[in-house]
User: Fold this.
Amino acid sequence: MRFSKLTRLAASALVTMTVSLGAHAETLRLAIGTQDTTINCATGGLLIRELKLLDKYLPKDGKYKGVQYDIQWKNFTSGAPLTNEMVADKLDIGTMADFPGSANGAAFQKAGKKSLFITVLSGSTQGSGNGVVVPKDSSATTLAELRGKTISVPFASAAHGMLLRALKRQGLDPEKDVNIITQAPEVAGPALQAGKIDAHADFVPFAELFPYRGFARKIYDGVQSATPTFHGSLVNAEFARKYPEVVVAFLRAAIEADRLFASDPEKYSELIEKHTGIDAPVSYLFHGPLGLQTRDFTWKPEYRQALKTSIDTLHLMRRIDVTPDPATFIDDQYIRAAFKQSGLNYDARLKSYDKLPLKANDAVTGKPITDTRRLAGLWVAGEPKVRHYATIANAVQDLRKLEQAGKAVRAVYVHDLIHGIKLLGPQAWFARDAQGEVSAFLQKDAAVAYASTNKGQLLDFAALKTSGAGR
Assistant:
C-alpha cells in the first residue's frame, strides 16, 4: 500500500517535471522581411528562403538547446512598409538599399529604438545600379534634353538621390528645370508605355528591366554620377543583443547563397525569375561575371560614405527629422563573425574590389578571353550557359548564324568602353574605328565622340548587325 503511494507520488512528480520543462521550452520567432523583385537583395532573402539555407546554420546547442524556431518570411516591393513592420516589432531582419535603410534607422531612432545595418549584400562603389530611362521612341539621349520634362521616381529611394545629383551635374535645377513626381516602378512602367511621363529614374532592376522588355531606353547610369550605392540587411538592435548567434546564422546563410550564385549565375537567375517574374537575363546582367554590380558583404569605405550621404540627403529633403550616426548605425561585428565561421577572410575581401571574374574561352575562336574591354555575350534560348566572346564582332558573327538557323537569343551583352559596365546590346550605341574595331557605349554622345576621334562610324545595334561587324 505504502509502495503504491510512493510510486504514485514519484509518477506525479515526473509528470510535473515534464510539464514544467515543456512549459519552459522556448519558441524563438525569426521574422525576415525581403524585397524579392529588388534582385540585389536575393542573397539576403529569396535564395535563403527557397534553398532552405537558414536551417543549416541556426544554433541548436548551448542556450539554444531545445529551442523551436518559428521562421517567418514576408515579401515587400519597397523599403518603407518593411521598415514600418520592423519598427512595430513584426519583423526582426530586413533587406533594403542605402536610402530606405537610412530612413529605417531614423524611424527606429524616432521611436526610441535602434536598428543596425549589419551587412552589405550587393552594390557598386562606382554608383551603377540606379538609372534613368525614357520611352523607347523618345528623342532624348541625355539628361540635359529632359529640361522642362516630367520625370518620375520612387521618392526617398536610392534612385531619387541619384537623380537629384545627376540633374545638378548637368546644370539643371531639380525644383525649377524639371517636374519630378513620385511613382513606384509598377506604376511607372505603364506610364512610360502610355507616354504619360517623359522619363523614369529607378533602382535595381528596373532601369534594365524596362529596356529589356522593349518599351524603354536607358539614357543614364548611376556610374556617371560616381556616387556609391548598395543594398544590405538590417536588424532590430534589441533582437541582435538577445540572439547574436541567430544573426550570425542568418549571415552565414547569406554567404552560402552568394557562393551558390557565383558558382552558377545562370541557374540562380532562372530561380529568381521563377519566383519574381524578373527575367533571368536581367538578373544575370547585374550579377553574372563582370556584372553591373558586385555582390560584396564587406563595409568598404565607399559604402560607409554612401550611407552618410543618404542620411544627409534625406535630412535635406525633409524626409527624416532625426539623423542616425553612421559610426554606430553600421555594426560589422556580426558579418565578421559569419566570415570567420565560414572560413573566410573578411579583411582580405574588404581590400578587394574585384567583380565576379569571367573565366571563359571565346565561343568563336576557342581562345581564352584575357581582354574584357570589348567583351560580349549571347544567352541563347534553350542553352543553360551564356556564350562569351572576346570581341563584339565575334558575338555579332555568331548571332547572325544563330538567327539564320532559326534560333532565338534571349539576350545580347556588351560592355561600355568608358565605364566598363555591362549593357544590353540592343540598347547600346557603337563606334567602329578606322581599323574596323567595334566598341560599345551607353551614351550616344560618347559613341559619336569616339567615332569622330578615331575616324570611325557611329552605329546603333540594328546597323551593326546588317553592316558587317568589323573585328
